[in-house]
Structure formats: C-alpha cells, structure tokens
Amino acid sequence: MFTKKEQEQIAQRYRNGDVDGVIDEVWQRTDKQLRKGVMDGYGKTGYDVNDFDTVMQLNSNVGVFSAFKSYRMHNELKTNLTDENGKKLPFDKFLTNYRKVDKEYNVNYLRSEYNMSQRQAQAANKWSDFEKSKDLYPNLKYMPSRSAEPRQNHKQYYGKVKPINDPVWDTLMPPLAWGCNCWVQATDEPSESTSIEAPLPIDGVVGNPGKQKKVFSNKHPFVKGLPKEQKENVGKFLSQMKDKHLSDEYVSSKVGKGKLKVSLNAAQESFGQNLDLAFNTTSNHGKTFELKGSNKDAPLNYNKTDGDLSIFDKNKNSFEKYNKGKSLSKLKQSFLGLDFSGKITRGNVNSIAGDLINGFKANDGCLFVIAKNNSKTSILNKGTALEQAVKQLQNDLL
C-alpha cells in the first residue's frame, strides 16, 4: 500500500514520537481501500432511498474500523521501538521491524478485509432486493458454495428454506466465514418445518450486513478489549478526519433522469429527511441533487443552487431558514425545501400558496421552493402568480 520511501517517512515519524494514536496516512489509505470494496460490492447505480442509507452506513462503518485498525498498528509498533534493554533501536533496525508490521497490516490483513467488505456489501445489496420482492418471494433458500473446495460445516445449510423474517437470517446470510462463497436466493418454495441452528457470527464481522448495515462489529479484535480512554482517542481522531478528508467524498447514483450525490460527511441529524427530499426531487424532476458535508452552511444543493429543508408547521414561518443566523441567511441565491408530510390538503392549499408567494416577496434570495408531500414534489419558482401556484400545488402534490 505504501512505497518504500513512504514507509521510511512514516517509520521516521513513529520513531521520533510524532504519532499520537492514529497516523493520518495509514487510516486514510485503509479507509479508501475498504470503501472501494463496499462500492465495488454494492454497485454504484440504481439506488433507492434505502440503498443510499445502507451504503452510507457501510462506508461509515469501515471508516471507523480503519481507525481502530490503525490504532492497533500504532500500539504494536510502539513495542518494536526499543531493544530488550529498553534502548531505542537504530533507525535501520526499527525500519525493518516497521516493514514487517506494515506488510502484515497493510498488505495481508488489508487484502482479506477488502474482500470481506466487498462480499458484505454484496450481501447487503441482495438483502435489499429480498426485502423489495418479499411479497412475491417470502422465503430465502441457502445455496451451495461456488468454491472449488467448499467448507464441510456449511453443507448442513445447503437447500434450507426459511421465511425472510426468520431470525436465523441474522447470522445465516453468507459470507459465514472469511473467503466463504455460499449464497442465498429468494424463493416461493415452502419453508422448512424444522428449526435451523444458526451459526455464530464470524469474530468481528456482522452476520447480516443488510439488516445491521455494517461490515465489521465492535467485537472485532482491533476494537474489542481496548480501554475506554483509547476508544475515546480513536473517536476524537475520527471527528477530525470528517472535516479534513470526508467533506468532498461522495456516494453517487443515477436516480431517474438525474443524479444524486451524498457526502460521506453529510449532517446526520437531518440525514433521513434531506435524503428523502433529494431522492424524490431527483426522481420526479431530474438534474443533480447533492447532500453536502456537515461543515457547509447550506446542507443541500440542487441544480447548482444551495438550499436547506424545513418541515411544514402551520404555526411557524416556513421561510425561517432565512432568519438572521440561519443556514440560508447569508446566501444571495438559494432554494427552500418544504416537507408537508401529508399536511397539505385541498382545504388549505390556497392559504399555503399565498404564504409561499409572500415568502418569495420577503426573501429576495429565494429562487424557488421544492414542496414535498410524501413522495410527490413540486418546484415553485419565484415570480409565479398565486392562481398558478395553487393549481401547481394541487396537480403535483394532491
């Protein structure tokens, strides 16, 4: 993963005591490789809202795992800094030790971790498909391994059929082990009448990534057993890295005739609502919608215009995002997302349209409003007449 020159530079930083816990470059390279495994395994097109949510959580999970792995590597290297008498080793001898540890962590381990990330992401994608088709195919069937030398202890599951909601699938969703090539398919075949003893999860790997939306669990040896203080150190490092590295990293997919891009550092407190608005807007109207990093003032961008989302409340000003100190207050041009969540009716559509027209007049920077009602959306542009606004909201949202 690192060139010889890079290894020398990192080793020198370790030896000089310039590393406190997790070294940036080691985490970043590991995280990048495992995120590539997730994206290669899950695929990159045709996402729905649940797919985006799953992929984001899988990416977040391997990022956390990468930090704990880098921290463990750091702890191991500390034991290689001195000889048996506690004297610091000459650099050439420490470099030899460093390269052995680096090969173990960043070549051997990483190869297996990438493969597992890819397989787990594939399994998560399949689980999403199973959920979507469960009305037609309510059961799942465990299929034989595609490996040249299948594991004997997995053969007991071959051909077994259980409902998709059976808890056995919490841990029976392949891969059941590192390198496992068993698989599962949806079926309408009758379910097994006898119970199936579910396997134990792989040490540190979740049993069903589609349900848990993780690749690695906190029982992995890199995480398990670390003292609380050391876990807190890793958490602080991850917080710093979100702003430093992840704000411009995106998961993207075609949605309808448009494209949806989601930052790996998207604000989590309103992530689900923002994602729902973005997905439905892109599905219905095309163009490109972005959920930006959490360090941005306006968390959304649609058709090259920044914006933010409000939830409709008849007792509040829908344009409160433009109030002093709010996310849209400093922008010369922006849009407002407004989620009605079923609260717009034929009885109040006229008054709502009037409020929106008045909102445009009071906020010169607002170019358009994306009104959302469940999965329906309507884009109301500045300058729209009241009569036209009422008609548009009725046609698009009701």
Characterize the structure shown.
The chain has 398 residues and is an alpha/beta fold. It has two domains: 4-187 and 201-243, no CATH class; 247-397, Trna Endonuclease, Chain: A, domain 1 (3-Layer(aba) Sandwich). Helix content is 42%, strand content 15%. It contains nine helices and eleven strands. The protein has helices at 4-16, 24-42, 49-78, 91-132, 209-212, 228-246, 271-285, 349-362, 386-397, and strands at residues 139-143, 161-163, 183-187, 250-255, 258-263, 288-291, 300-302, 305-311, 334-339, 366-373, 376-381. An eight-stranded mixed β-sheet has the order 4-5-6-7-8-9-10-11, sandwiched between helices. A hairpin with a 2-residue loop joins strand 4 and strand 5 (258-263). Helix 1 packs across helix 4 (91-132). The termini are far apart.
